[in-house]
Amino acid sequence: MSPKPIIAPSILASDFGKLASECQRIIGHGADWLHIDIMDGHFVPNITIGAPVVTCIRPAIEKTADGKGIFDCHMMVAKPEQWISDFAKAGGDLYCFHYEATENPRECIKLVHDSGMKAGIAIKPDTPADVLYSILDDTSDPDYYPDMVLVMTVEPGFGGQKFQQRCMPKVTALRDRYPEMDIEVDGGLGPSTIDVAAEAGANVIVAGTAVFGAPDPKHVISILKETVQKNVELWKTRSKV
Ligand SMILES: O=C(CO)[C@@H](O)[C@H](O)COP(=O)(O)O
Ligand SMILES: [Fe+2]
After folding, report:
1. What residue ranges do the domains of the chain occupy?
2. Would you say residue 236 has pLDDT above 90?
3. pLDDT score at 241
4. Which one of 6, 15, 81, 198 is CB 3.0 to 4.6 Å from 231, fit for a cystine?
5. Has the ipTM of the complex gone over 0.95?
6. pTM of the complete model
7. Contact predicate 73/90, CB 8 Å
8. What does the alpha-carbon distance between residue 160 and residue 162 come to, in Å, rounded to a whole number?
9. What is the CB < 6 Å shell around ligand 1?
10. Residue 209 Cα to ligand 1 middle (Å)
11. CA angle (186, 192, 193) in 5-degree steps
12. What confidence category does residue 163 fall into, taking pLDDT thresholds of 50, 70 and 90?
């Protein structure tokens, strides 16, 4: 099955003073998932929120059969194993940890799956894509297989940074090698950068500033989604060449 376009606004760019209603507002504008950036001040030089806040916003957002309302937790934390159970209890759906933050990414994927969440694995701009190949090539046990790969397009830690196009060859390599994988990009995405990211092969698009800062978030979300949709067929032709 072809990957479908998924738009996941980063709530880091929302007004935290009215977080639950901001989440509802952006879902109402057509967002699919909510991207929740968790920073611990160790893995990245910034601190955001933890599981208690996720617990508070969970009841405000309905999950639908067509996959809307998923909480995509981007764990920019050291030792990601330690927070799995808290986020599962808080209502996280997808627990995306950093490859660089753990000594055993395969075991971490298994622990996330055991908790009932889906597992994502993220790489920073300077981490090559091929570190993931041994994990992604081994389809022998679904418990150890990630549900999504996240290619960071900025250095993790802050919203509002400039998109780094140099990360796109990694997205292309991953898309050509894994045509059905959900590939997420995160950092500096918006109407001016979506073309290159979608052409490279990203289907899950995180956008914070570009969505929450827009006068018409619905319009921005539809541009992002349509641009991914236009490229899905192109990836198929390219991987056959
Ligand atoms: O994980 C991160 C930053 O570390 C991101 O999710 C950003 O928060 C996205 O924000 P914009 O670059 O879209 O403003
Ligand atoms: Fe993020």
Report:
1. 6-240
2. no
3. 58
4. 198
5. yes
6. 0.98
7. no
8. 7
9. 10, 12-13, 35, 37, 74, 76, 154, 156-161, 186-189, 206-210
10. 8
11. 35
12. very high
